[in-house]
Amino acid sequence: MAKSGNKAKKSPAIAPSSNWKKLLPTITSKNEAKKRKTNEFEISPNYKGNKKRKLEELKALKKETKKEAEIPKKDDLWFGDDIEEEVLKNVYGNKTKKTISKEILVEKMNTADSKLGKFVAIDCEMVGVGPGGLDSALARVSIVNFNGAVLLDAYVKPLEKVTDYRTHVSGIQPKHLESDEAITFKEAQEKVATIIKNRILVGHAVYNDLKVLMLSHPTLLIRDTSRYKPFRKLAKGRSPGLKMLVKEVLGISIQAGSHSSVEDARFTIELYKNVKTEWEKSFGARSGLIMKKLKEKEEKSRNKKKVTVQKEATIIEEYSESEEESDSDSGSD
């Protein structure tokens, strides 16, 4: 008996109608357009990444504004009368300033205002005296102001016989010390003492300069670039040379041949100006307070002298009048 093997017949595939074929390309293009649109979406203002970026921009703007605000007014500074507006901006303002060539800088110093001010930089050149020229004696002294203008530059006749001029280092030759323009040690000492009195004294290994001049100066008013910690770090904790510091910090080469005390003093004050804000912060308000007291003391001393002079003038005047009266009285007799 034959098995009944009826299998389910597959339904024949329905061919798409002609209308469907016409609609198919338009449906596909719409889907593709939707996909493209999702890839080209705009970032919402509330998106976290956008907010972060805006906060960073706001912080940067505040930082720039703060930098501008940090530049103090001349009237607010005890030394404000001695500094120009441009110098204030350079010292207290944004530090991202362009480096200047040595020639242009020296030219600016040569034409700078030579007023004294509250900051001076000193450098001395020495010669050797005594057996083998091992001991040092003053042979030249130079002092410049905050702008690098020369306040004093003089060759000095040593008190002892020179046994080593150290020309290759000092640049001093016999003709310099034998010249009529060379001053005595006492004159040099008095001139320096007058200039540095009650002022911030900047120098490189400045204690050597004071020692050879046989002068002292308040420690709080000394800025020694050889002892400034950030500068010493450049020399791995050792005392840095001035030539190396100027090259590293200012990008300028000095001391190509023998030394010049004017050049050394000028670039020492430039080093100080480069780090002045940070350096003075380390002293805090104490330094400014002492300077104010010194200034007040100086003013009182000046006023006292004026009063003394006025009193002397009054006494002389009264004496002259009494002499005239006595002369007239004797004439009448």
UniProtKB/TrEMBL annotation:
Coiled coil, from the record: none
Domain Exonuclease residue range list: 118-281
Chief place of localization: nucleus
Region (Disordered): 1-46
Bias type Polar residues, positions: 16-30
A GO MF term: nucleic acid binding
Keyword DNA-binding: no
InterPro entries: REX4_DEDDh_dom, REXO1/3/4-like, Ribonucl_H, RNaseH-like_sf, RNaseH_sf
One family name in Pfam for this protein: RNase_T
Family: Belongs to the REXO4 family.
Classification lineage: Eukaryota, Fungi, Fungi incertae sedis, Mucoromycota, Mucoromycotina
Name of the protein in its database record: RNA exonuclease 4
UniProt-listed GO biological process terms: rRNA processing
Biased composition (Basic residues): 1-10
Gene Ontology, cellular component aspect: nucleus
UniProt subcellular location: Nucleus
Organism: Rhizopus oryzae (Mucormycosis agent)
Keyword annotations from UniProtKB, A to Z: Exonuclease, Hydrolase, Nuclease, Nucleus, rRNA processing
PANTHER family for the chain: RNA EXONUCLEASE 4, RNA EXONUCLEASE REXO1 / RECO3 FAMILY MEMBER-RELATED
Physiological role: Exoribonuclease involved in ribosome biosynthesis. Involved in the processing of ITS1, the internal transcribed spacer localized between the 18S and 5.8S rRNAs.
Keyword Hydrolase tagged: yes
